[in-house]
Amino acid sequence: KGFETVIHGGTVVTASEVFRADIGIADGRIAAVAETIAGGETRIDASGKLVMPGGIEAHCHIAQESSSKIMTADDYRSGSISAAFGGHSCFVPFAAQHRGQSIDDVIATYDSRAEGNAVIDYSYHLIISDPSPEVLEVGLPRAFARGITSFKVFMTYDLMNIGDGGMLDIMTVAKQNGAITMVHAENNDMVKWMNRRLAAAGLTQPRYHAISRPALAEEEAIGRAVALAKLVDAPLFVVHCSTAEGATLIQRERLRGVKLFSETCPQYLALTREALDRPGMEGAKFMCSPPVRDSATQEALWRHVASGTFASVSSDHAPYRFDATGKFANGTEAPYPKIANGMPGIGMRLPWLFSEGVSKGRITLPQFVQLSSSNAARIFGLDRKGAIAPGFDADIAIWNPRETRKATLADQHDNMDYTPFEGMEITGWPETVLSRGAVVVHQGALRAEPGRGRFVARRRVDLTGMPGYRAPELDPARNFGAEIAP
Ligand code: URP
Ligand code: ZN
Ligand code: ZN
Ligand code: ZN
């Protein structure tokens, strides 16, 4: 049987190599990788181009209400289309539990939002805001059985944070089922104390959002989350690390063998808190949590990207429009604590990372593949994605590494009315994106029907090379707390 599609003449980039090869696709999978492949019902000319695993966006908020019930501007249709134009062939948004809601109900809600809409494959990370016995004993094991093998918890936001004990409970269940816990790490009481002081002084403009969430609040919370994960020797993924101190702490614990992963985001590498000083309410466009910091932090975070502290650079796409449906749902003069946190970026994540990372010589092409796709696939159990090798899904992005143009809102194909990347000069853009062998985007045109994207059931995290840490008190080998060790 022949190939449906052959991609020929391109330079293939994997997580470890760069080489000239053609790719043969059959039944939506990569069937052959060889110097020259003849035939193919469709032949795609990739000469002068880079052929890479399609991006996997593992941190994005799609068709999700904020903790104060403001709906994101992007749903599974516009969000997946924007992702595909930006070089992705898979994304993993969050399915968020409201307190009191059953996990079955959460999953059913997000299934109904996703079905018939996505143009690329998807899965969910569950957000747990209410770790009741029913959730821990029934809900989460049922979620694993469906292939949802990651949960996110919050250490901040009054309506979301579950306390240290709740985190230990979730980490323990995650460990027993082969899942990973993700954490948004900021000390809630530090932020609330800062909010009270700022409010008392009448300082409520967007710029004070950055001041209200100090670097120390992140550093403290990351340290605490890691300590909790060590007590139960469970894997942990620290999302959107924004500080040098946090990154250094993560690097040190990884060197000790702790089962610890992390990511940073383009906004922390590209923007500084001066962006929030723009006149009027413009600064609200750049409000996200944790906040963007300063140029010294950017340099430190780049060194952590280059040296492997971070598994991925994720967008944290949290699209709230600059109008009454989004940022100003509580009025155009709302004080910063009542303005939705988050900024869009799923369409710019990869072009921006390619341009600032690869084109400027900060990271290698294989590192780009690791940070954009392959690491997320291994950590989050997408076992058929994130590689160019026989047997894997033909989820492939073909990039023109030389094309230079300025980022515009129109390029994003999302449902937003601004992009924080507006006007930035970007060298390196995706040209063609395939999902299970089908062309989804080609030269600026959408070629796929919404609904072709499928839910992907995931496996367990790959913890190879991470011995972990056993708290002596819970180490069965030492027989102290053997009876209660997770
Ligand atoms: O500011 C952000 N990142 N908003 C999205 C919600 C969250 O904190 O993850
Ligand atoms: Zn050829
Ligand atoms: Zn977060
Ligand atoms: Zn987020």
UniProtKB/TrEMBL annotation:
Cofactors, names only: Zn(2+)
Alphabetical list of InterPro entries matching this protein: Amidohydro-rel, Hydantoinase/dihydroPyrase, Metal-dep_hydrolase_composite, Metal_Hydrolase, Metallo-dep_Hydrolases_sf
Molecular function, one GO term: hydrolase activity, acting on carbon-nitrogen (but not peptide) bonds, in cyclic amides
Post-translational modification N6-carboxylysine, affected residues: 152
Gene Ontology CC: one annotated term: cytosol
Keyword list, A-Z: Hydrolase, Metal-binding, Phosphoprotein
Amidohydrolase-related domain mapped to chain residues: 50-440
Posttranslational mods: Carbamylation allows a single lysine to coordinate two divalent metal cations.
Classification via Gene3D superfamilies: Metal-dependent hydrolases (3.20.20.140), Urease, subunit C, domain 1 (2.30.40.10)
Pfam families tied to this protein: Amidohydro_1
Family that this chain belongs to: Belongs to the metallo-dependent hydrolases superfamily. Hydantoinase/dihydropyrimidinase family.
Function: Catalyzes the stereospecific hydrolysis of the cyclic amide bond of D-hydantoin derivatives.
UniProt name for this protein: D-hydantoinase
Organism the protein comes from: Rhodovastum atsumiense
Taxonomy of the source species: Bacteria, Pseudomonadati, Pseudomonadota, Alphaproteobacteria, Acetobacterales
